[in-house]
Task: structure prediction
Amino acid sequence: MSESDLLVGFLVVVLIPLLAASWRLSLLGLAIQGTLLTLMANAHGRFESWTPSSILQLVDLAFLRAFLGPLLLYRVLKAQKAPARSDVLPPNLLVWTLAGALVLVAFRFGRLAGTTDTSLHLSVFASALVLGLFVLASQDSRLSQMIGFLRIENAIALFELPSHHPLPPAVHGAILAVFLLTLFALRSFLSHRPAPGALESSEGPRL
Amino acid sequence: MSAPLPAQAAPLDTSSPAPSPRGRASRSPALLLLLALGVLDTAVPLVLVSQRAPGSAPLSLLSGYFVLDATSLLFVLLINVIFLSVATYIWSRVRADPLLAKGIGRYALFSSAFIAASNLAVLSNHLLLMWALLEVTTLAAVPLIWHHGSPRAHQAAWRYFLFSGIGLALALLGFACLGHSMAASGEPGFFLGELAEAARQPADLWRRIGLALAFLGLGTKLGLAPMYSWLPETYDCAPGSTTALLAAVQFNVALVPVLRLLQVFDLAKHPAVSAELIGLGLLTMAVSALHMIAARSYKRLLAYASLNHAGVIAIGLGLGPEAAFGVVLYVVSNAFIKALLFLTAGKIRSYYQTEKLDEVSGLIRDLPYSGIFFMVGTFALLGLPPFGSFLGELLILSGLLTRGYSGVFVGFCATLTVTFVATGRAMFPMIWGETKRPIHWEAQPLLSVLPKAVILVALVAMGLYLPAPLKALFQEVAADLGGMP
Result:
């Protein structure tokens, strides 16, 4: 598969879960995004030789984004027997039209800011980013906000893919560790959600 | 250690042969470790500042990943002095109320991780490493916010985590855009020296986008509008000690990358950044002033005042060299003010069992020490002389006039006036109003008053007299921002 095919695939995976109100599909979408990012990194020749930087990138994309992140959230939701329906975006025509308009604006940005070679990459990145922000802005459920947040993280990873200048391993490792801790923090927030209406309960002594 | 001071906390019972719950709680290894960490972390930078020759070259540490220069030294000293105050406050609160000892080991552990990451972030010489360490401070602060486990605190911790995560993600994207810009003109690198080298090239689209996103993202972490809504809720719902850590330590840790970017990228060549900072600052001041009028809780009022201060700092930074010294002075004063007020607010809440403004009255009679701390803190908050905040604000206002920003000057003065009236109307009756409780003073250990007293002295001293080594440090940081030495 060429990089263009992978980018188009990424855009499809960014769009489809927005239209289907299912948390399983949303998490599957995140996992596929991570897989496509790994394939794109491979297409850029990142894994031709095994350097600390390439190993860290493989762990980041293939393990954390494609596997661990979606899996951690999946296990919590399954244990909580969460209802199958979970809107990533409010299900109405206005919101879908706005999402479509944002994608058009993102493609316009990609054409303006990129060259012939890079415009598709920039367009897909900008689409993923603005749709992630749109999910965050339009939803107040904790799961939807987490999915919006992880979509933004994946969009940033997509933006950084073409860079041929690896970070020092210590810095790359630190960023990776932070992302891993963030995933566990997300799991913790999802599994300790306060019951509805419990926000005004009385509190004891405080530090 | 214990002095019979007329104050509010119960005394330490030393006559009992077996250790009392209070004594056992205050001797918790985790608490003692926290105190020891605070003392050590404060002593080292204090010695370094006193021994340092003005203008000495930056010291590179650990293969250049960390640097000790004027900026890092000033902020390491500042955050550790405040951390020591917070650690002492926690110790004295647990000692006064053994019920608070529950979960204190975990609290101390995350506080230690928080201050360790904060120190490393301030010392970092690599922009992305600084970013990662700032994220670690955010992750370590989450359990500190929901320490009491109340649903409100949990919700506040989530909002804090989400907004911080998004803000830092935007900042990371901004750094990636800067990398894109540098790649076009040569080898990209995020060590501060490499950034300074790259900044000499003419600005392109990616650098402009990168700087705009980086300041927007870091501005979110500082609580600047438009993404400020996490801050009042978090400061309100978190324990007083956590709020002090967030407002006076983490705020300054998040400010350091902003200062580093401004040291590297000359505002004269990037007028859009200057406009962005001034615009965000003025918007934040206006938003906070409106919220302050409607505030019904003293902690929330202080949170909005913190927003106001963030706005003043953003405006000062946007002005560049004209206000550099004023900004440095204001930033340090602001950290002490917030630490003093939030720690005192924690004490007030524990005594009155409420955070409602209209239910607290006669503070100066009910809790004389807390009343004095709150009164002086409020005066400094309002920017009255002789505090450093007064001089800092004056220099920023003067910078606005020097740059010819008369519209911003008018907006700044108008919001300050509203803030002054709203704060005075709410706080003054709280301090000097009629007391609603029978007065009952109990002895209080000196150590529980000392941290706030030290902050208070530092606050007053900054407006009246700065010791020569500190003054030289302030001037060097201002000079690094392009200001007059």
Residues 65 and 484 of chain B are 29 Å apart (CA to CA).
